[in-house]
Amino acid sequence: MKNFMKKSAIFLGLFLLTFGWVLQSNVQAATPIEMYDNVWRLINSKYVDQTNNEQNWNKWRHKYDNVIKTDEDAYVAIDTMVASLNDPYTKFLNPKEFQEETSSIKGSLKGIGIQIGVKEGKLMVIAPIEDTPAEKAGLLADDEILSIDGKSTKGITVDKAADQIRGEEGTKVTLQIKRKGVEEPITYTITRAEIEIKSVTQKVPTDLKIPEDICYIRLSSFISRNASKEVADIINSNQNKKSYILDLRSNPGGLLSNAIYISDMFLDGGSIVSTVDRDGYKETQKASTGVLTTKPLVVLLNKGSASASEIFSGAMKDNKRAVLVGTQSFGKGLVQEINKLPNSAGINITIQKYLTPNGTDIHKKGITPDIIVELTDDQIKNKDDVQLKKAIEVAHELQSGNYVVRK
């Protein structure tokens, strides 16, 4: 039996925070110009693209020396410099944003409970978080956000959009949404709340009854530091079940360590994920020998499944450990590092890309399930979860040994 608690501590030491972010600590106070220069040096040495979006990075180093007088001046200058990378995942966080991001890692935040990203220049809903105002209002993965409180989102960055959507508990925000298959935009006015990030549950999203011989696990994010332990506890307490369904639909990702740790529960050796840095150095994370369960596993995916969800799914698919059911995943194949800056600010820097065990780069492509099952808006409205129904069918086929991949 694997010593998962010890392994988790090791992985947390290597990959602390969301999507492989590493938190730089013990940062001393600095002047505004020193803070700006700190960001310049971090990107210069760590950013995954050595060309820095095909530009001369040196031009930025002293560009604002005669302009930066206050922290706020430095924030504007840093935002401008970082924007030149044209990377929505490399972003500066002012003290308020950094504190909110840290809070989300700890398991709570204030807002409407939504994960957003920029895809092909459009501000998109990656996924609403389960049991939050966003989900209850009806926002869906892959919705395009056209405006926030009447302000167009054209050309907006993820951090600016998040800052506009976040706010004090009890206040309202209005989003105009463009949804595939719906001709007219939809307007949602949503009341902000204290969002508790729940990672693991066995609650089924519809009234569909899970057969007694199947253990259903819904993992809504990999953010919580307790997620991997909670999954392990459920598996250990359901050893009498004949198969497992792990539901990663609309799971936007989270701790890279959790993705590795949970993958390790199901894999008896073999590769989990490889990361490649700016110098082309490739590092592969492998599963240890021994597993928490050898019983059949079905993984549910959709277009809201991103990052850490894709790392886990890719590991299961390439190692032929699970059958993936659902629709194409989001396609985020980059790793960020969080660096704590002076004066309580922070900078997220894309430092690596990741590859599945077979060497596949899924960025902007996603992972294709073994069995594609679409879930329409009408089916969602009528709580007809055809994807979960198919997963149950596949789980029973795997139990009986009669499963055949249908191309």
CATH topology assignment of the largest domain:
2-enoyl-CoA Hydratase, Chain A, domain 1
**Element order: H for helix, E for strand:** HHHEHEEEHEEHEEEEEHEHEEEHEEEEHH
User: In what range is the share of β-strand residues?
Assistant: 15-25%
Helix content estimate: 25-40%
Number of domains: 2
- CATH architecture label name of the largest domain: Alpha-Beta Complex
Give the count of helical stretches: 11
What class do helices, strands and sheet pairing give?
alpha+beta
Largest sheet: 6 strands, mixed
Which CATH C-level class of the largest domain is it?
Alpha Beta
Widest β-sheet, arrangement of strands: 10-11-12-15-16-19
Shape: globular
Q: Residue ranges: pLDDT <50 for 5 or more in a row? A: 4-26
Oligomer: single chain
Mean pLDDT: 88
Radius of gyration: 21 Å
- The CATH superfamily of the largest domain bears the name 2-enoyl-CoA Hydratase, Chain A, domain 1
List how many beta strands DSSP finds.
19
Our measurement of the CA-to-CA distance between the termini, rounded to an integer number of angstroms, reads: 36 Å
What does this structure look like?
With 407 residues, this protein is an alpha+beta fold. It has 2 domains: 1-107 and 197-401, 2-enoyl-CoA Hydratase, Chain A, domain 1, CATH 3.90.226.10; 108-196, PDZ domain (Pdz3 Domain, Roll). It is built from 11 helices and 19 strands. It has helices at residues 4-14, 32-46, 71-83, 95-106, 133-137, 158-165, 227-236, 256-266, 308-318, 377-381, 386-400, and strands at residues 91-93, 108-111, 114-119, 122-128, 144-148, 151-152, 172-178, 186-191, 193-196, 200-201, 214-219, 243-247, 271-277, 282-286, 297-301, 323-326, 334-340, 346-355, 371-372. It has a 6-stranded mixed β-sheet, sandwiched between helices. Strands 1, 13, 14, 17 and 18 form a 5-stranded antiparallel β-sheet that branches. Strand 15 (297-301), helix 9 (308-318) and strand 16 (323-326) form a beta-alpha-beta unit. Helix 2 packs parallel to helix 3 (71-83), helix 7 packs parallel to helix 8 (256-266) and helix 8 (256-266) packs parallel to helix 9 (308-318). It is globular, with a radius of gyration of 21 Å.
